Amino acid sequence: MVVVLSRHYWVIGGFRCLLYPLFAFHRSRRLGKQHSDRLGLGITNFVFWIGIGHAGTLISAILFLCQQKWRTAINRSAEAMTLFAVICAGIFPAIHVGRIWMIWFLVPVPVPNWIWSNFRSPLLWDVFAVSTYFTVSVFFWYLGLVPDLATMRDRARSPIAKICYGLMALGWQGGNRQWRHYEMSYLVLAGISTPLVLSVHSTVSFDFATSLIPGWHTTIFPPYFVAGAIFGGFAMVLTLLIPARSLYQLHDIITWNHIDVMCKIILLTGSMVGYSYFMEFFVAYYGANPYERFIFLNRYFGPYWWVGCGMFACNVIIPQLFWIRAFRRNIVTVYFVAMCVNVGMWYERFAIIAVSLHRDFLPSSWRMYYPTWVDVFTFVGTIGIFVTLFLLFIRFLPMVAMSEVKGVLPEANPHFRPVPVPKPIPAITI
Amino acid sequence: MTPARNKRLLGVIAEFGSAAELYRAAERVQDRGYRLWDVHSPFPIHGMN
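Above: the input entities. Below: the structure tokens describing the complete assembly.
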């Protein structure tokens, strides 16, 4: 199976590799020249990628604590997706602070250097939030991988693979004592990750909420961003897993029930996002702040009306299709909605960031925001990194958590008794 | 090394077909009072402790 699939894999991988030079070379051209609204795409992409990362932690931590057994089929790949999305996101702060040679200011340096980081800056909080999130997610992902890496070690044919998997498996033997410790540490890590699901995107939203820009300065941002992040993250999980499922024939593992449940989560969080849109609009009206009112009218009816309306259609209206069961169980509609959500969530960040900035308090500084091709290719390049890392992951690591899937089967229960096959009733002949 | 010493019993390994069989076997081994033994499985079996 791997041999057959590796052909697809290298074709896609080769295409991605073409994007890197563009990404690396041209990124440096415009740095440091940017006006405040020229930062639009950098921040937009940062928030977009961080948001995508949230589904992985939700699936791995919160659903684990809620004992949702269906998570086992998708948690490994969702967690991997989380890590890769955070890696992509991590590139953008270097760009969106505008002066890349000052980026080290975001990290607290030792006191004797007499360099004082501004602890009141939410950008600094971001560094803490995102790096904590990444670290915990790596631990969590790796801990879950250990038993499966041991399986890979035992099944590896080439000696190099055996050594590599063997080193990574940390001497796992599957003994009962090992399982006991493993499960306890998994539970502890799930407990640590759970607040992170809520805190990371809240902190990201503080970047905006603590500023005074109309359209940013609202208290609804933390829950609104978290709901949006989970919403966008699940859409990305579907975007990646539906092709992987059919390429690798995983229909028995990632079943229609899994897709159905994920669609319901998208519906729920999408409706929460829709509620936030309405509430933002209402508060702008009810708050009687002329700048705030203007910015919301401008978002939906100004020169960027297509961003505002596109975001509203993709995030609020189209996911309502999932009220109908038939649409949750049709590959075309599920994929269509997931792609709409991906686009819509990017639009949302663009609408909040760039559209709010392009017309601020001073009409003399109003102008349209046009991303440079450097901006665009930077974003395209991160999509390349994301897809490449994901493809490398499904090539070299077990993309389904084997031990966890086995553990939730009915046969794994020691008190399981197979249902006896009823004996055929002898035909009574009279 | 004498042949008799060579035949000293070092350990016993048994393989079971299902979690339920393994669990029953583990119960028996524990009831007999053995100390140095462990159960290996490809997934955690709850209640095995």
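Note for the figure: Chain A touches chain B at residues 147, 151, 173-177, 179-180, 182-183, 402-404, 406-407, 411-417 (CB under 8 Å).
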